[in-house]
Amino acid sequence: MRLAFAITALVTAGAGLVAARPRPAAVRIVREGVVEPASWRARDALSARDRAIVEHTLPSGRIRMRSVGRKEELDLAAFDGNGLPRSDAFAALRHFFRSMQGHSVDVDPRLVELCGTLQRHWPDRPLVLVSGYRDPAPHGRNKSYHLRGMAADVAVPGVSAFELYKVAVKLGARGTGLYPSFVHLDVRDVPYRWTGR
Ligand SMILES: [Zn+2]
C-alpha cells in the first residue's frame, strides 16, 4: 500500500511538472524536408484528449472507414484484447485497401493503428480512404509506400486537408503529405513531411 501511495505521489508530481513547462509554438508546417521525431516537448503541446489517444498502450484498433471510389464501408476492431492484429479484420482491410485493378497486399498494422488513431480524433466521422494499395507502374521508380501496404491517402468529411494534416503530425504520423483534398500518411522509419499538388 505504501509503495502504491509513493507511485501515485510521483505521478502527481510529474503531471505538475509537465503542466508547468512552457508550451511550444503551434506545429510548424515545413514545405519539404526531414523533421525530428515527435519529442516530449511536442507531446506537451497536445490537448489532454489527444495525449490520451497517443499514449494508450494497446492499439484499440476500432476503425470506421469509407472508400471514396467504391461505395464500401468498413467498421471493425482491427486488434484483439492483447493488441495483436485480428486475422479476419486484416483480411477485410487488405481487401478494402485494394488497388484500382483489384490487387492487394497485407496492410501494415502500424498504418491501421495510425488510421484508427486519426479516426478516434473525430469519433463520429469515418476516415475516407482516397487511395490505399497501388500496383507498381511498369516503367516507374516504384518507391512509393503505397506499393507496400504502408501508405494511405485519407480525408475526413467536413475537415480541411490542412487541419487533418496538422492533427496527423501531432498524433505521430511519420510520412505526411498535404494535398488540396487529402492527406498522404505512411509509416516510414524517418519522419518526412511535404506539400503536394
Ligand atoms: Zn499517398
Question: Can you describe this structure?
Answer:
The protein has 197 residues and is α+β, with helices and mostly antiparallel strands. It has a domain at 60-195: Muramoyl-pentapeptide Carboxypeptidase, domain 2 (2-Layer Sandwich), CATH 3.30.1380. It has helices at 2-20, 40-44, 48-55, 87-96, 109-121, 161-170, and strands spanning 32-34, 62-67, 73-77, 127-131, 151-155, 175-178, 183-186, 192-195. Strands 1-8-6-7-5-4-2-3 form an eight-stranded mixed β-sheet. Strand 6 and strand 7 form a beta hairpin. The radius of gyration is 18 Å and the shape is globular. It starts with a helix and ends with a strand. Bound molecules: zinc ion.
Describe this structure in a few short sentences.
The chain is α+β, with helices and mostly antiparallel strands and 197 residues long. It has helices at residues 2-20, 40-44, 48-55, 87-96, 109-121, 161-170, and strands at 32-34, 62-67, 73-77, 127-131, 151-155, 175-178, 183-186, 192-195.
Strand order of the largest sheet: 1-8-6-7-5-4-2-3
Low-confidence stretches: 1-41
Give the % helix.
25-40%
Distinct ligands, ions and cofactors found in the model: zinc ion
Number of beta strands? 8
| CATH architectural arrangement of the domain at 60-195 | 2-Layer Sandwich
Strand percentage:
15-25%
pLDDT averaged over residues? 79
Task: Tell me the span between the first and last alpha carbons.
Answer: 59 Å
Number of helices: 6
Q: What is the radius of gyration computed over CA atoms, rounded to a whole number of angstroms?
A: 18 Å
Tell me about the largest β-sheet: 8 strands, mixed
Label the structural class.
alpha+beta
Outline: globular
CATH class of the domain at 60-195: Alpha Beta
Order of helices and strands: HEHHEEHHEEHEEE
| Annotated CATH topology of the domain at 60-195 | Muramoyl-pentapeptide Carboxypeptidase, domain 2
